[in-house]
Amino acid sequence: MRIAGKKAVFFDLDHTLWDFEKNSAITFRTIFAKHNLNLDHERFIELYVPINERYWKLFRDALITQEELRYGRLKAGFDAIGFEANDELLHTIATEYIRQLPESNHLFEGAIEILEYLKPKYSLHIITNGFHEVQAGKLKNSNIEHYFETITNSDMAGCKKPHAGIFEYALKAANAEKGHSIMIGDCIEADVQGAIDFGLDAIYFNEFRKEAHPSVTQVHHLLQLKDLL
Question: What are the UniProt keywords, alphabetically (predicted)?
Answer without folding.
Answer: Hydrolase
